[in-house]
Design goal:
heterodimer, A: alpha+beta, OB fold (Dihydrolipoamide Acetyltransferase, E2P), 4 helices, elongated, B: alpha+beta, four-stranded antiparallel beta sheet
Amino acid sequence: MKNNSRFLAAVGGVSLVVGYLIWTGVTETMTYYLTPIELISRVEEDPTFHQMGVKVSGRLERGSWSRDSNELLHRFTVADIEDESVRFPVEYRDILPDTFNDQELQDVVLEGRYREDGVFDATVVLTKCGSRYEATPEELLEDFIE
Amino acid sequence: MILLGEFALWIALPVSVMGAVLAFLGGVKRRGDWVLSGEMSVYAVFFLLILTSAGIIVAFLTDRFDYWYVANYSNRELPTYFKVAGLWAGQRGSLVFWALLLSLFSVVATVSNRHKNREFMPYVVGVLLTITGFFLLVLLFADVNPFERMPFAPADGRGLNPQLQNYWMTIHPPTLYLGFTAFTVPFAFAISALLNGRLDTRWIIITRRWILLSWFFLANGIIFGMRWAYEELGWGGFWFWDPVENASLLPWLTATAFLHSIQIQENRGMLKIWNMGLVVTTFLLTIFATFLTRSGLIESVHTFAENTKIAFLFLGFMGSIAALCIMLIVWRKPLLKSESQIESYLSRESAFLFNNVLFLAAAFAVLFGTLFPLITEGITGQTITVGPPYFNRINLPLGLALLALMGIGPVISWRKASRRNLVKNFRMPIVVGLLVALWFYMMGARQVMPLVTFGISSFVLTIIMVEFVKGTKARSRIEGEGHFVAFLHLIGRNRRRWGGYIVHVGVVLVFTAFAGAAFDRELITTLEPGESVTIESPLGHEYNLTYQGLSSARGDNLAAKTTALIAVSEDGHPVGTMTAEKRLYLTWQAPVTEVGIRSKFLEDLYLILESVSDLNGAFLNDPKAQRATFEIQINILVGWIWYGGLVISLGGVITMWPSRGRQLNSDQKNSHRDPSGLTA
């Protein structure tokens, strides 16, 4: 029995270390996942929020994408899904995913920082494709009519 | 044929429910005829699900776009190959495919055990049919019927997402599903053992090959997924800690733990409750993975409500299974008593136990991180996510500890290691590990984690090599065989042990490959035809890439594709050309990028056609539209993931290979009780 309890102590020790890793991992890497409306109201409440890395889910504005061909800089506008009047420009300096398309209705997820000048400096751009892969019969009917 | 398939799906549900009820009742009331009917239902359900799957495939092949599922995942010009793969391209088909594979395994498990292990059969059949029945229930009543018709037939389908039109993507999901479903068999035997009270190692011995089979498919499925991401999606990356990836990793982690902990039970009669817990947990995680990969629960946190029916069905199902299993284990607790105790920290039991704790800790950390957005949203109403840094931070140290244990576990003695055992087995490998790390340091590698990884990897490889050499020499001396023959016979005589070592070698290669990624280089540049760019490899040589220009053509299922041609020379010597493409699919508006990869043993040269300044011009072969931007990467050791995968598969096949007759046990001296004559 004595050995078993020694063992439990060792297992407990490992769990403590892992618990510590999880705790610090969460507190140091956690990112708020916000809508543009939430982001903007947060920043108004607390200007230090500009410095925080955040994740934002919004809607890509049609036809808003442009790029500077000399430097690899993409610019586009993202709006809130509920209220498209709440929007901000985005800058991104890496390769966009293939599914990124500003010619049709598309939701995107951005990671990065909302700068003081009101531009979102994105380090990651993901497109939400779940809804793109499947269409409801009504949507298919629309395609069909077109 | 399609209607027949739909009809078969409707028949399969009552057949499996009836079969499950009869099998369970037959087990309780000891009515052999009822149990036989249950077994017949297993065969019948398999037959019906073949008809159902054939129906779906026929609908794809004959372009029946009046079926919603076909219209969403196919189009007329889609190559036949991908039309067949349409069966598992989307949620609805995959659920059918899942049920089909499960019923296939149910048939195999029933046929191969119905005589040998009669006492397990009633409940095994009952559990297998219950799980199949659940999936059929979901298919028919959770708005995911693959045979749903639309009131009209579109002229063409929407086509398969181009990123899924890749060889690896067609075999990646089936491989994972094989792994998920194969694990249902050990789970069914475990439940059966709990119900009939045969709680010795019998159920483990029966299902050991199934566990290995499931593990084998999971490992391969995960690696195929990495390969697909590397080629198609990841721009040179292969793992992103995406919820869907995590979901497939979770059952693999716990299955690996289980694979090791059952060896302690077999050899020392310990950890019985723990093993029951692990088999249930792993099974639940396979269901969770199926659910998560096909429901989009995590990514679309804000649109969770869309598919509540299927979510509640799955959560309810998993919850009730978990509750029932806990009740069963508590009920049988007296029979699950440990037969021996751990005697020392320095023993094989202890190494295996730590292996288990670490695997479970990793699984918990990954699960926690994956569900974190849901948890925070549930508690605070505010979604908070954790990203790759969180996962790397936790899993790197855990992974390295596990890597080290992989060297320690196989050679440390059972019960209590003597000082002599430790010095004899570990002195030389530790020295080798330190020397390798030192050598890399002298070569200019400065990152800590890769150095530690290389050091530990060499430590493990040395230990395994020494084991092989010792075993071969001993055998060659005793049997008077040549070294090569002795080596083959050595493996053949205890496949489980030596096959396991080979799997370990594969895992070491994969870990080394992960560490290699720390040395990757990349650059982005815009070129006109004739211009060139130089990139230096961390291995010392230099690549010079000269852009030759773009050319466009049509292709299968493509409106257009434009191909950039690049001439490559290494240290001034021309070594060939590479191409990278932009494709415009018939059914997809946005252009799709296809990368070029030039693989060598130690590095890949990886070329992405990032953009073309005038893409429409390029598609029309306009000679002025040639300016293009490329990303060029040198990915160090990435190929070792795939080589490691092959080695893992080889080891897995050796381990699972059916033994003819009696297997001698070269490891007998280590084991004080070993009913099967097999040890680790």
